[in-house]
Amino acid sequence: MFKLSKKVQSLPPYLFLEIDKAKRQARQEGRDIIDLGVGDPDQPTPAFIIEALNKASRDPANHRYALDQGMPALRRGIQGWYKRRFNVNLNPDTEILPLIGSKEGIAHFPLAFLNPGDICLVPDPCYPPYKGGTILAGGLPYIMPLLESNHFLPDLKKIPLSVRKKAKMIFVNYPNNPTNACADADFYRQLIEFAAKNKIIIISDLAYSEMTYDGYKAPSLLEFPGARERVIEFHSLSKTYNMTGWRIGWASGNTQLISALAKVKSNIDSGIFSAVQLAGVAAIEGPQDFLKSMCELYQERRDVLVDGLSALGWKAIKPKATFYVWIKIPVKADSISFAAKLLKEADIVVTPGVGFGKYGQGYIRMALTVSQERIKEALERIKKIS
Ligand SMILES: *Cc1c(COP(=O)(O)O)cnc(C)c1O
Fold first, then answer.
1. What is the DSSP string of 333-366?
2. CA–CA separation, 250 vs 95, rounded Å?
3. How far apart are CA 160 and CA 175, in angstroms?
4. In which band, very low, low, confident or very high, does the pLDDT at 14 lie, cut at 50, 70 and 90?
5. N or C: which end of the chain has fewer CB within 10 A?
6. CA of 54 to the centre of ligand 1 (A)
7. Per-residue burial over 303-325, b = 16 or more CB atoms within 10 Å of its CB, e = otherwise
8. Which candidate, 245, 168, 166, 236, places its Cα nearest to that of 208?
9. Residue 18 above 80 pLDDT?
10. 238 Cβ below 6 A of ligand 1
């Protein structure tokens, strides 16, 4: 027998085993499952992006190893996007690094700066790679609870001095998965002040910056004074352009942070397929009216789901961003058994909140990644069992 490394042993347990098993079994039995569990767009990648891939894939120049630091065309495209979207000027050679999906960069980044025993401040509930990347780098995640009473923002004042001293980095993610909370300018200013005082790197995950509703526009941390000294921001084409399977994203921000991540990556991967990079250029430089209709589609689904749940007496709030509805469980039950009950009795898959960390206990997450008709059907089924 082989013994797993201490790091791998200390990764958080995978809590969806039972639900996954029950889901597979339900499918095998031919039951009509409504899957509100996965955060993966159900709509196809826009045709103009697919065309760009097709064209680029036929050019033999794109068949060889790509440049580690990404194609200049892509970095310039990202520079233009940042300027248009946030009015932030980035140097495409030193402040932008394309990634094989943002998860890849998020998980590898802690390797660049953590020594054994160093602390990384991690929100809970959160996207799992924040904890996983920290642990694989030998660091210690220090949990910052995201509580409804604090609008699902970490309470920086509550972080003890001894922890601040040992902390090298902090993760934030707004618009947030799974709670769908958004950060305001005040929070970002406080965060930068806190990090500057304690010499901490800020890692900002902006995967949902373009998926917003009711006129809300999510800011970039890089818009704020002092951010350029200590922020690395992660972006993804996955959710914005329905490109989850393509694996393309990027990091932008402080030069030293970007070059350190590039150094780690140069020992691990060999860049993104060039044809995918060129498709990425087409995505960010192409017609953006697609985005508006995508947000409208999710917004309509959101309204149907949240209005429907409210009518059933559930406490659900309409998110102003992301395609997740974060719901307090309406009865006395833990999140795993409640999710199991929905699957068993209503053939509905939801994500138990505790899968994102212990402060997700008592919640479930529903994703707006099925059609309005299916959402209505799900509401009917919930009505029948409640
Ligand atoms: C989906 C998601 C990502 C994007 O991951 P990719 O690797 O770019 O597909 C990043 N962060 C969060 C919080 C997400 O939900």
1. --HHHHHHHHHHHH-EE-EEGGGG-GGGTTEEEE
2. 10
3. 26
4. confident
5. N
6. 25
7. ebbbebbeeeebebeebbbbbbb
8. 236
9. no
10. yes
Q: Which two tokens stand for residue 334?
A: 């833990």
Q: Strand, coil or helix: what is 79?
A: helix
Q: Flag whether 242 is in a domain.
A: yes
In the numeric block, which tokens belong to residue 78? 């990202």
Q: How many CB atoms lie within 10 A of CB 161?
A: 7
- Domain holding 244, by residue range, is 47-285
- 164 plus 99 within the same structural domain: yes
- Cα(278)–Cα(280) distance, integer angstroms: 5
- The per-residue pLDDT for 22 is 84
352 close to ligand 1 (CB < 6 Angstrom): no
Please check whether residues 40 and 161 belong to one and the same domain: no
Which residue's CA lies nearest to atom 3 of ligand 1? 207
Q: What region, left, alpha or beta, does residue 105 occupy, with left being phi > 0 and alpha being psi -120 to 50 degrees?
A: alpha
CA of 345 to the centre of ligand 1 (A): 31
The number of distinct structural domains making up the chain is 2
**Averaged confidence pLDDT in the chain:** 96
* Token output for 385: 């069992």
pTM of the model: 0.96
Query: 1 alpha carbon to ligand 1 midpoint, in Å?
Result: 35
How far is the centre of ligand 1, averaged over its atoms, from the C-alpha of 103 (Å)?
6
Q: Helices 274-285 and 72-86, interaxial angle, to 10°?
A: 20
| Pairwise CA distance, residues 146 & 267, whole Å | 35
